[in-house]
Amino acid sequence: MILTKCAVCATELGLSLGKKCGRCSTRYCGPECQVQHWKEGGHDTLCKPIKKAGGAEQYNANNKYTEAVAVAAEACADDTKGQTCFICTQAFHWKTKEGLVRGCACRGTSGFVHVSCLAEQAKILVAEAEENNLGDKAFDERFQRWHTCSLCEQQYHGVVLCALGWACWKTYLGRPEADWIPGAAMALLGSGLSSADHHEDALSVEEAILSMKQRLGASEENVLVAQSNLAVTYGELGNMEKALSIERDVYSGRLKLNGEEYPLTLQAAYNYAGSLVNLRRLKEAKSLLRRTMPVARRIFGERNEVTLRMRKAYAVALYKDDGATLDDLREAVTTLEDAERTARRVFGGAHPLVTMLESKLRCAGAALVAREVSAIREAMAAMTPSDAHDDPSS
Asked: Which of 55, 199, 352, 377 is the most core-located residue (most Cβ within 10 A)?
């Protein structure tokens, strides 16, 4: 994670509190911890190497990046065997000797690449946009190369996105806080950590981002983005009440600021509905999703991830309801079957959304079968003895 805690006692310091080593910027809550670290924690031998690497934050990011790349390459090893990078055309990176990854929607022989090649490509594109003052739209398109595949145009996920998050953060962490790029890099790191299920680390990042934006007087738009990401992380950690409270405020804020058809308003609606489902406030969730799903279909289309996730949440709210009718359960199964087919065509079978839809479809199918069996038994129990032995031909 980014360095927001004392290196000795782990006291939370945020991004601005505490004391730093004058040579390497390692952070402490006070002089006592700093002295202890020097005498007993090995800082006397690490201080110079950390300084040489660019300081404590850079040293940590470099090491975390190297670890994350190794994890990503190992996780993708079976899929990438015998392939070459679509950027450098080599199987192993010429400098780092890292293996290949593929964590997007590419299939067949497409999309194999080194994380280092992706990072270098993104870095060059963003630098060109800055040097040539290409404007916000071109800048945003180029920054997307940090997290989105240039071939299939789908975002990377899992351990690959985590490695790219560390790559982006280590590239831009030295810039001033007021520069928007470090904030964007930190946000990508938070998303990558969450995607790789490192939710505790992601929480520290998301909290630091929100604190920084509030301290710098960021726009309401940027604060809402930070709050939304923080709420999602709380949800992943199981703190659903905290997540719901923030998501309700974010959705309300989005409606007032942007209106119901704005893409981030629809994302906020899905997040809010998801927390309602997790807390079994199913009536509220279904009501919200019935209002927002048609809007998402109109704005995004049927193949968009937000649309598909909304349909998944709605189906779950249907089959988890203790008062669900047979028609409700059949609708849940039909919805999940259609969403799973669409997601598989768009993202490929390895995408987390596809595996999630498959899991929910199995649950919905089991609930439907159980209800159908129960209905048959109830019908048979209600039959009179004469009904049960009537000859249908007489």
From this structure: 55
Amino acid at 288: L
CA 245, 250, 252 angle in degrees (round to 5)?
Answer: 100
* β 27-28/19-20 pair status: antiparallel
Work out whether the CA dihedral 333, 337, 339, 340 comes out positive or negative.
Answer: positive
Rounded to 10 degrees, the C-alpha dihedral 64/67/70/72 comes to -50
Q: Does residue 192 form part of some domain?
A: no
| Shared domain check, 49 and 67 | no
Domain match, 26 and 108 both: no
Q: For 376, how many CA atoms within 13 A lie in the half-sphere containing its CB? A: 5
Tell me: do 23 and 77 sit in the same domain: no
Q: What is the pLDDT of residues 31-66, one digit of tens each?
A: 888 888 887 778 888 788 777 777 888 888 999 999
Using the 3D structure, point to which of 156, 177, 198 is the last residue of a domain. 177
What Å distances lie between residue 326 and 329, 338, 382, CA to CA?
Answer: 5, 18, 18
pLDDT in tens, 150-183: 999 999 999 999 999 999 999 999 898 888 899 9
User: 43: which strand partners?
Assistant: none
Range of the domain at 70: 61-177
CA separation (Å) from 11 to 33, 97, 202, 389?
10, 37, 17, 77
* Neighbour-count burial for 286-320, b at 16+ CB within 10 Å, e otherwise: bebbeebbebbeebbeeebbbbbbbbbbbbbbbbb
On whether both 100 and 20 belong to a single domain, the answer is no
For the chain, first and last CA: distance in Å?
79
Claim: this prediction has a pTM higher than 0.70: yes
